[in-house]
Amino acid sequence: MKNYQNILFDLDGTLIDSKEGIVNSVKYALSHFSITVEKDEEIYKFIGPPLRKSFSRYYGFNENDTELAVAKYREYFSKEGMFQNALYKGIPELLESLINAKKNLIIATSKAEIYTKQILENLKIDKYFSFICGSTLDGSRSTKGQIIQYILKANNLLCDNCVMIGDKSHDILGARESNMDSIGVLYGYGSYEELKQANATYIIKDVKELQLKLQ
């Protein structure tokens, strides 16, 4: 693997298992529309992609209902959901080793930036990142491609010295929009087939292997 200096990390499904908080927040939002979810697994597809796209795509909401669903989601998430998560095993050790190797670590997530910063602080890993970038609450910056472009411009980075790490196809496709290499991880919520179809530069099975490859 190439020796990358700048390492961009997705959050949900890559650094943290955020399943519980996201599922509960989506359920709360859908309950406002009298929609009941029988199995939590039906909501796992919400983990990663922008909220507005997910509500519109999976429940056929029009623009007004989509905005209301997002508002309801955030109503629960801002109070409880953002704290219903946990670091994947080995993540603190991975981040520490990369910092010791003089790597520049950046967060690139579709989660709202304001919540992302609070989550990282709560989990005590915010200190590892030189730059934290998420989506804006008004949706003006929401796709992974937009987020990566913003990071590159704000930090004056060249994409050939950067790599994007994520567990879903939108992480890989977002990196490709900037001609950036990508690493798909299999311990999150994406499948091998999904990551391969998106043309991930590399596909890694677990955190231990990720640490070995990046150093």
Give the tags.
single chain; 215 residues; alpha/beta; Rossmann fold; DNA polymerase, domain 1; 2 domains; six-stranded parallel β-sheet; two-stranded antiparallel ribbon; 9 helices; 43% helix; globular
Could you explain the architecture of this structure?
The protein starts with 5 loop residues before the first strand and ends with a helix. A six-stranded parallel beta sheet has the order 5-4-1-6-7-8, sandwiched between helices. Strands 2-3 form a two-stranded antiparallel ribbon. The chain folds into two domains: 6-17 and 86-214, HAD superfamily/HAD-like (Rossmann fold), CATH 3.40.50.1000; 19-83, Putative phosphatase, domain 2 (DNA polymerase, domain 1), CATH 1.10.150.240. The chain is of the alpha/beta class. 42% of the residues are buried. The longest helix is centred in the N-terminal third of the chain and has 15 residues, at 63-77. α2 (51-59) crosses α3, α4 runs parallel beside α9 (207-214) and α6 (144-155) packs across α7. The chain contains nine helices and eight strands. Helices cover 43% and strands 16% of the residues.
Give a short overview.
This protein is an alpha/beta fold.
CATH C-level class of the largest domain is Alpha Beta
CATH architecture of the largest domain: 3-Layer(aba) Sandwich
Helix content: 40-55%
What average pLDDT do the residues reach?
Answer: 96
| Low-confidence regions | none
Radius of gyration: 17 Å
| Number of separate helices | 9
Estimated structural class: alpha/beta
Helices and strands in order, then pairings?
Blueprint: E1 6-9, E2 16-17, H1 19-31, H2 51-59, H3 63-77, E3 86-87, H4 91-100, E4 104-112, H5 113-122, E5 131-135, H6 144-155, E6 162-166, H7 169-177, E7 181-185, H8 192-197, E8 202-204, H9 207-214
Parallel strand pairs: 1-4, 1-6, 4-5, 6-7, 7-8
Antiparallel strand pairs: 2-3
Helix pairs in contact: 1-3, 2-3, 4-9, 6-7
